[in-house]
């Protein structure tokens, strides 16, 4: 259950600022599907607008990284932060962008390994090597 | 400062299990440089051996993901976990594997964006869309 | 589902230490409603007593901060820690203490922004400015 | 030490996009002081611009929450995320905005309490009360 | 709901690598019960094999720590990381290994206390005492 | 560097509430050494008093868990939360209470393993087995 109302399409249609964002999500992503994070953020139009603007700027534009790589980075952060919804939505997006089973397995292996070595390094308070200095 | 002694090369040479791991790190990575995480783990030979075995298995083998992509995933997890040493070591490794300034900027943009949307989704407790079901 | 039994009122009535805490919660908060965290902690009477004593000391006394501000700080921590129950209970408490939609939107904006800048600062390992020294 | 160069004023002056952001930070905050997070982000002009735009939009505008309350929420998130630089910069900002010792003590008490109850709730996996439903 | 298929016994029987791990789990633990984490990992045989090898090496062998103490350490980490499934599985395992109600209460008290003092120390950025140096 | 002043013994002697806590720390622990967390908390006497009261209640009393086990649980939480000072102070305390190198190695192995499996379980969103229900 959410802490706020999840907006239906009818409710979004009746609210100009929300409708404008939903329309742009659909046009940008070329799909009629608007997932629940936007339907929850609709309760706070200013946060809805700025969040969508950031997502569009970061994920939908041309960039130095492949769209799938960006989605996998998003998955890695979401897993590390323990965000259930985010893990689901970005795993689904990565699959939609072509993530293979073998790539998913490698991502899991790296994320699992990083969690271990992060913990060991923190436990031992390893000093940064001078060689890593910029 | 570390919670344990950081082993010198001379100390590692005198301890067969540690020497064997250090030798393999050097041979695998084709460099004489052994960074501090291994010099700290040398105090616990069993953990040193199993950790190196995992790193070698995950990072050094052929895989479905590009070595640079794996290093960038490692960076994303290390940033999310707030591990200072790990951020330094994996940023340096990513650069050594060819990460460009433009790719670094994109990684930062994705990691920063994911942190925000993770927080908002958690704040609103957004329910998982049935469309994401496997 | 919980890892422990959620105590009913009848069970609490039959256990003097638990009953004493539940009675004090009701008297302090001027409501008959005892939420599930206390019904779960009832399995460990010493932890129940010390936790309620701390909550009462921190949240229910006169202080330099407005009760609503304290509740919003509680929300911010609970969101950052990813605690589902805590997000729900403290969002509900903040609303009961008068949090408006506009204040909620501002809290979300700050929490989301802080998550991003925290991540970027950690990624870049920004050194603390001498100007911030006490 | 940072993972990137910390830009001097002279370096910023020579780079139009960076100079524009630094000028706006100084004008908005009515101070010549530009703290290190911006000098680190200067290496990635697009992230510098979007981050400053967000900070300006969230922190510097009129809002439903007092500027000091927003700064204290920022502190609470930064503490929970374990971001050293952020704890320093936002504690300094809160003091500059008038945070008293008594308010600081109350903030610490709430943040410490929330950390405990978050942990206990997670340990016991307390189910959300139906009364909290929207 | 999971992001992957949860394998049934029949499906595991038909896949030699998965079957081998499931057989070893049953033989090592002397029970027919294979819990869901292994049924989820079955989708990635290499990660399944390496994860089980690590769990077996760390948890099932003779060691300097009592099996119950190791399980309680596992609980403490899982609680701190906010991993719902892990809290459930390791609390159940600790009980199966003899954790008493009094021990559980003490664990909760320590974990709750550590969460508070960790938060306060981070808030105040307490410098490490020279006496703690190795 | 800290966000607050680290109190000297002379300063503590001159402040009755702080002096009372410092005296009790010394008497309880049978040592003249008062570590920095208390010297930082001295700036907030109410938080100093309540924090010391909790530490004393949880760590110094008779309990169902061995003092060393409690210290190791404290280490596990501090590592998971990434608290540098706390890792140092509780590792030092565990050693002072007799933690052997072999026990330390086992703790590191468990904490590292738990970090990995926590991450994998979160990545896969493994559903809780009905067998774990209370």
Automatic annotation (TrEMBL), chains A, B, C, D, E, F:
Pfam families, alphabetically?
Answer: CMD
Domain Carboxymuconolactone decarboxylase-like span(s) in chain numbering? 52-126
Keywords of the record, alphabetical order, are:
Oxidoreductase, Peroxidase
Q: Decide whether keyword Oxidoreductase is in the record.
A: yes
Single GO molecular function:
peroxiredoxin activity
The organism's superkingdom is given as Bacteria
Record-linked InterPro entries: AhpD-like, AhpD_core, CMD-like
Q: Which SUPFAM superfamilies does its entry note?
A: AhpD-like
Q: Which PANTHER family match?
A: CARBOXYMUCONOLACTONE DECARBOXYLASE-LIKE DOMAIN-CONTAINING PROTEIN, SI:CH211-175M2.5
Q: What is this protein called?
A: AhpD family alkylhydroperoxidase
Supply the source organism for this entry: Rhodovulum euryhalinum
Q: What is the lineage of its organism?
A: Bacteria, Pseudomonadati, Pseudomonadota, Alphaproteobacteria, Rhodobacterales
């Amino acid at each position: 259950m959410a802490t706020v109302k999840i907006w239906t399409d009818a409710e979004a249609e009746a609210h100009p600022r929300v409708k404008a964002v939903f329309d742009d999500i659909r046009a940008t992503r070329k799909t009629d599907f608007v997932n629940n994070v936007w339907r929850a953020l609709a309760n706070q139009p200013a946060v809805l607008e700025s969040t969508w603007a950031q997502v569009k700027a970061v994920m939908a534009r041309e960039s130095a990284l492949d769209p799938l790589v960006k989605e996998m980075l998003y998955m890695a952060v979401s897993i590390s932060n323990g965000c259930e919804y985010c893990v689901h939505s970005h795993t689904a997006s990565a699959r939609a962008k072509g993530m293979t089973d073998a790539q998913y397995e490698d991502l899991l292996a790296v994320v699992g390994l990083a969690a271990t070595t992060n913990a060991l390094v923190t436990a031992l308070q390893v000093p940064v090597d001078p060689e890593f200095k910029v």
